[in-house]
Amino acid sequence: RRRGQRARALVLGSHPYTTRPRENCLDTFEGEGGAGAAADASGDGDGGGGSVMSLDEALNAAGFGRFQLCLLVVVGFALFADACELMILPFLTHGLLCDPHMDATDEQVSMISVVVFLGMLVGAFISGVVSDLFGRRVGFLYTTAFVAVFGLLSSLARTVAGVTMLRFMVGVGVSGSPAAIVLYTEYLPSQKRGSQLVMYLLFFSVGTLFIAALSWATLPTIGWRGLLALASIPGFVILSLAVPFLPESPRYLAIKSKPSRLICSWRKFTGVDSAERTLRRVAAFNKHPLPIDFKLEADAAATDAPDDEQHVVVTSGGRTRRCIQSLVLAVKDFASDVSMLLSAKSRKTFALVCVLFLLMAFLYYGLVLLTVALLETDSDDEPLCKGSDTVHELTNWDYLQALISNAAEVPGLLVMFLLLDWVGRRVTLSVSFALCGGATAFLLIPRMPSAVQCCFVFLARAFALSFNQSLWVYTTEVFPTKVRATALGFGTCFARIGGGVAPFMVSQVLFDSSEAVKMIILATCVGTALVSAVLSLLLPLETNSHYLTETTLPEPAPAS
C-alpha cells in the first residue's frame, strides 16, 4: 500500500523530491495584475497576436525623454559620489601625514590607497555577479549604500588602521559602477546611446572637480575628517532618490523571465514587474504610449535558460532544501555566464578587455596620484606639516594646480564625445592612449618650469580620462545582456589590480627625492600608454551603431 501511495504521489507531483521546470516569475505574483500579466507574458490572454516588438524596437518606440533624464540624474550623481570618494585619496593621505594626532607613517598612508583598490577588486566581482543574478537595481543600491555609510564612518576613525579598514569598505561600494552604467545603458534607445553615455560619464569629471575644490576649501581649515564627512553627503542624497524611483532593467527582466525560486521570491518582495509592464511605464512617462496590444517577441534564446531537466526547483519539502536548491541554480547560472565569456567567440575580446582595464587603471590612477606627488616635490621651500618631518604644506598655488589638472577631465570627455561616433570606439581608445603617452613623455624633461609642467599634466589627464571612459563604453556595448554586468565586473577587477599598483609607484616619487626614480616611473607610464594603444586596435569587434545584444556578441563589422 505504501509503495502504491508513493507511486501515485510521484505521478501527481506531490512527492517532496518531485521537480518541475522553472515557471515564469509573474505566475507566482499575487495581487493586482499578477495573473493578467502572466497571461499576457505567455501570449494566452485576449488580444493574442498583437503588436510584437523586439526589445530594441520597444525601447525606440518608448522614446527618449523625461524618464531617461530622471534616471540619468540618479545614476549620474551616484557616479559623482564615487568620484568624490576615489579622488579624495591624494588629499586624504596628505591630511593624515599632516595630522599630529594620527602619527601616520609614509608606508601606512600608501597602504590606504592600496586597500581601497583591494576593496574595489573584491566589490567589482561581487557587484557584477549580483547585478546579473538579482538585478541591476540591487547591485546599484547596495554599493551606493556602502559608499555613503562607510564614507561617513571613516571620518570618525581614531586610528590609521581604522581609516584603512573603513576605506576598504568604501572601495567595495565604489566598485558598483558596472551596475549603474549597465542599468542606464539598457534603458537607452540605440540612436541615443553614445551621446547619453558621455553625459553619464560627465558626472565623474564634475565629481573630480568638486572634490578638488572642496579639499582646497576645507582641508586647511577643518581638516581631513570634515572633508570625508562632507564628501559622503552625495551618497545619502542618491539613496533617498534611488530607493523610491529606480526601476529594474527591462533587458534583465526579459532574459531572466524564468529565474530560480530565490530570485523569484526577491522580485515579489521588491515588487519588480515584467519587462513589458516596465516598458509601458517608461513609454507613459515619456508620453510615447506603446500600443495597447504590445508584446515582446517570444525569443527562446533570450530566456535565462531552456526548460530542461537541469533547470528545476523543489516544489515541496523543507524551506532549507528549497533555499539550497535555489542557491545551486544561482551558482549554475554564474558558471554558465563565465563559460559564455570564455567561449571561442568571445574569449579574445574578453581577454583583451581585461588586460586593457588593468593597464588603463595603472596609467589613469597613477597620473591622478602623481598630480599631488609632483606638486609635493616642487614644494621644498614651503613649511613642513606639523605631523611630518618630510611632507610640506600644500599652498594655494598647489591646490589651484590640482584643480586645473582635475579640470582636464572635462575637455578629455569632449575629445571622447567627438571621436566615439566619428572614428569608432577602438580608434578612440587607441588615439587617446597614444596622446596620453605623448603628453606624459614631455614630463621627462628635467627641471621643467612649474607652469609648463602643469600644462603637460593637464593634457595627460585629459587624454587619460578619454581612454578611461571610452573603455567603459566599449565594454558595456560589446557584451550581451546576459553577461554584461559580469563582464564589467571581471574587467574592473583587473582595473583594481592596476590601480592598486599605482600608489606604490607614486610613493617612490613622493618620498624619494631621486630624479632618476621619477624618470623611470614616468617612462613606465609612457610605455604602458603605447602598449595599450596597440592592444586597443587588436580588439576584434567595433560596437559603433550596433544594437545591444541579449545572449550573443554582436557580429563583427568590416573596418571602415
**How big a fraction of the residues is strand?**
under 5%
Apparent shape: globular
Q: Give the overall pLDDT as a whole number.
A: 75
Order of helices and strands: HEHEHHHHHHHHHHHHHEEHHHHHHHH
Uncertain spans:
7-49, 299-317
Largest sheet: 2 strands, antiparallel
Strand line-up across the major sheet: 1-4
Give the radius of gyration.
26 Å
Q: How many helices in DSSP terms?
A: 23
End-to-end separation in angstroms reads: 75 Å
The class by helix and strand makeup works out as mainly alpha
Extended strand count: 4
The assembly state of the depicted protein chains is single chain
Helix content: 55-70%
Describe this structure in words.
With 560 residues, the protein is mainly α. The strands form 2 sheets. Strands 1-4 form a two-stranded antiparallel ribbon. The protein has a two-stranded parallel sheet with strand order 2-3. It starts with a helix and ends in a 23-residue tail after the last helix. About 11% of the residues have low confidence.
